[in-house]
Amino acid sequence: MKTSVLGFPRIGKKRELKKALELYWKDNINQTELIEVAKKIKQENWLLQKNSGIDFIASNDFSFYDQVLDTSLMVGCIPERFKTLEHQANELDLYFAMARGYQKNQHDVVAMEMTKWFDTNYHYLVPEFEENQEFTFFSSKVIQEYKEAKELGIATKPVLIGPVTFLHLGKSKHPNFNKLSLLGTLLPVYLSVIEQLCLEGATHIQFDEPCLALAINEEQQQALQFVYTAIATKFPDLITIVTSYFNDYEDNLTTALQLPVKALHLDLIEAPLLLHKVLTHTSFSKNTILSLGVIDGRNIWKNNFETSLQYIEEAKKHLPSENIWISTSCSLLHSPYDLDLEDNNFNIPSDIKNWLAFAKQKIQELTSLQKIIDENQLDILEKNKEALLQKKKSLKIHNPQVKVNTQQKLCIERESPFYVRQQLQKHNLQLPLFPTTTIGSFPQTKEVRKWRADYKKQHISEDTYDELLRKETEATIRFQENIDLDVLVHGEFERNDMVEYFGEKLEGFVFTHFGWVQSYGSRCVKPPIIFGDVYRPEPMTVKWAQYAQSLTQKPVKGMLTGPVTILQWSFIRNDQPKQETCKQIALAIREEVLDLEKAGIQIIQIDEPAIREGLPLRKNQWSSYLQWAIDCFKITASGVQNTTQIHTHMCYSEFNDIISSIAHMDADVITIETSRSHMELLHAFVDFKYPNEIGPGVYDIHSPRVPTSEEIETLLKKAMQVLPHENIWVNPDCGLKTRNWSETKTALENLVNVAKKLRKKTEVLV
Ligand code: GLN
Ligand code: ZN
Q1: Is the CB of 607 under 6 A from ligand 1?
Q2: At residue 137, does pLDDT exceed 80?
């Protein structure tokens, strides 16, 4: 039985790539040094898999920033605005300019748009297409990587994002333009890439076509047929593997099965019934290799070998063993690197640790399964069964009181409707027209991060740490007063991450030291692991909110992360439905909201940036998800008085198709990310006549570029044209933790000045 891995984490065991990238961007190391770090990571990953005995190891799963951007560069899909830059000559710098924008020597070019990769928390850079887009074989990264592995003696399976998915993910400025019309010019480039790979010796190529997990139209289905027929015709001996993941093929199954490819991948974690459907399907041919994705690429629980073996047994009844591969459900990009790194700390108690598997362990699970099957090594199976049994029985997981609380019936509506609350809040808060605010975090400087690191290592005492944070908070309050923002925040300096912080304060969570997962570019997150029933032993944020409020006459917002986001950005239990876990979190956050209110905080923001990404990939499952997700938000927000203003915040989202659910959330104010899309995302709210207040972001905080006053004014005026003026807030797209103080200062000064200017103009008119 052969083993295959769809892709491996690339940020480095201890985030070496992140560190090198950031040094390179600051000009602290040169390109050769950066490339050297990358090379080491790739080698380590390949050798790890090779030495574990994996048969089909991926290459081109590495990326300096993002695999979709890699694909754009591979096919020469470079937006016009990047073509005049002086570093044109240097491919990697051009690539980073596309990812991050470019502001230097009179050049001022905005980055490409970024959005979520399917229903994960990974973000990709959205390809940009022109009507008469030309493609050329521009970047040969995929070839280089294949050669690099070959030099190590490893014949890899290069991974390409398939052309149909690539087109599907991209975006065109012209609304009526059919992206599939580009296939005619795109396909020849892919054929050249494949040809080159074959010349170098590649025998297997993995084509990721996760558009097959989505509702695609007939034309796209035909396009898939067309593409893979062309490839099969030109390269009859090539082992082509088509993968899709994160979902069942559903109504694309016939299309998938009829593709003239040698191997088809099935994500059996997300779609446990898929194998049976495939094996009994009339279009299924026994000559097709099935790649059985039995190892969960997106969660951290130990594999259930018995279940995996059942799949394999079932497959064996229908096809010869050599046509069965065992694999990861998706790329391990979404898994942390190595559980063994957690060895020398007590963050994860050893019993819980024994329930887990990270990327490296998942590789071993694949080869373990192989050993059970091929060599009948039943002791491995017994050990696995024992670990799972211990987990099931563990008293750590179940808390009877939590179970009682989640059963209780709660009213989840606010006391009065919005229009009543709005008047009361306006009277109470006395904010000017177009109130200015930020989304919560202020720059997490090196110093702030060092204090936290020192505190965690017990190099400084809790008192010292608190004192440092208080000083930073006070300075931030003064800063906000000085530039004259209207609603202040404490700055979130005590938080490493908006989810981890809460997870650490709640019961039912454990944390890793090195469990990093790439979020975008050099940014990583360390998702908490929810292993048991969740509750709040004591207040989590009240101290900081209260302290910040004590420093100023202006209102300070209390800042919380919402339950859906905590759920979505954690590794979640696989032994109870998601919504059950979410409700437990919601009840804990509700208690916090009420405590903040009691402490005199009049504005409370409950961030839910992840609501949209939690949407199931298929629309037929949306309404049940939205029902429980929105209800969970309302559990957190509904207990407060009319005068307490609830904010929520969402980012990187398109809102059109969920706008009515967002309206049901009934937050008094919602702040959203709109600047990168030039207010395009606002249309959903306008068309829907969204009744509550909105802060459309006017500062793209994902780029180091500082927006000019003119740019901010243009954006704000766009919003003013379409929204009732009394409902408009002025704020950045998102939190400022990744920005530095000098960028933040200039940008926010511009923002406040524009708000004041337009406020004055508007008030004169009234
Ligand atoms: N309050 C959080 C912050 O400002 C929100 C971050 C987010 O939306 N991702 O950092
Ligand atoms: Zn945000």
Answers
A1: yes
A2: yes
What is the identity of the amino acid at 703?
A: S
Query: What sign has the CA pseudo-torsion 316, 320, 321, 327?
Result: negative
Residue 671's alpha-carbon distances to 14, 593, 642, 692, 754, in angstroms, are 34, 18, 20, 11, 18
Q: Kindly report whether the global pTM for this prediction surpasses the value 0.85.
A: yes
Angle at 522 between CA 562 and CA 490, to 5 degrees: 40
Mean pLDDT of the chain: 95
pLDDT value for 763: 78
């859906």: which residue's tokens?
A: 564
| Nearest by Cα to 487 from 423, 553, 540, 427 | 553
Q: Annotated catalytic sites, by residue?
A: 702
Residue 735 CB less than 6 A away from ligand 1: yes
Residue 421's H or E segment, with its range, is helix 418-429
Residue 86 has pLDDT above 70, yes or no: no
Which residue minimizes the CA distance to atom 6 of ligand 1? 735
Look up tokens 């044109």; give the residue. 88
Residues 6+ apart with CB under 8 A from 287: 323
pLDDT at 105 exceeding the cut of 80: no
DSSP of 505-553: HSEEEE--SS--EEEETTEEE---EEEEEEE-SS-SSHHHHHHHHHT-S
Query: For 77-99, b where at least 16 C-beta lie within 10 A, e where not — what string?
Result: bbbebbeebebeeeebbbbbbbb
Separation of CA 676 and ligand 2 centre (Å):
13
Per-residue pLDDT at 48 exceeds 90: yes
Listed in order, the ranges of the chain carrying CATH 3.20.20.210 are 2-76+110-392, 410-765
pLDDT digits (tens, 9 = 90+) for 702-746: 888 999 999 999 999 999 999 999 999 999 999 999 999 999 999
In CATH, the number for domain 410-765 is 3.20.20.210
Residues whose CB falls within 8 Å of the CB of residue 93, separated by 6 or more in sequence, listed in order: 31, 87
Does the structure show a pLDDT above 70 at 34? yes
Both tokens of residue 178?
A: 């059919």
CB 139 within 8 A of CB 42: no
What distance in angstroms lies between residue 37's CA and the mean position of ligand 1's atoms? 31
What three-state secondary structure class fits 111? coil
- Helical segments of 61-140, H only: 67-74, 91-100
In this structure, are residues 7 and 332 in contact, taking their beta carbons and an 8 Å threshold?
yes
Name the residue at shortest CA distance from atom 10 of ligand 1.
Answer: 735
Long-range contacts from 215-220, C-beta under 8 angstroms, 24+ separation: 215/250, 215/251, 215/618, 215/619, 216/168, 216/252, 219/180, 220/164, 220/168, 220/180
With a 6 Å cutoff on the Cβ, whether 491 touches ligand 1 is no
pLDDT tens-digit readout, 288-330? 999 999 999 999 999 999 999 999 999 999 999 999 999 999 9
670 touches ligand 1 (CB under 6 Å)? no
Instruction: Name the CATH architecture for the domain at 2-76+110-392.
Output: Alpha-Beta Barrel (3.20)
> Does 167 have pLDDT greater than 90?
yes
Q: Which residues are 239's β-sheet partners? A: 204
SS3 content of the chain, % helix, strand, coil (to 5): 50, 15, 35
In DSSP terms, 256 is beta-bridged to none
Phi, psi of 339 (to 5 degrees): -65, -30
H-helix or E-strand spanning residue 381: helix 378-393
CB of 528 closer than 8 Å to CB of 392:
no
Question: What percentage of residues in the chain have a pLDDT greater than 70?
Answer: 99
Evaluate the CA torsion angle 365, 369, 375, 378 in order and state its sign.
Answer: positive
Q: Quick one: tokens of 19?
A: 């560190």
**Residue with token string 């082509």:** 240
Give the residue from 628, 672, 667 showing the smallest Cα distance to 653: 672
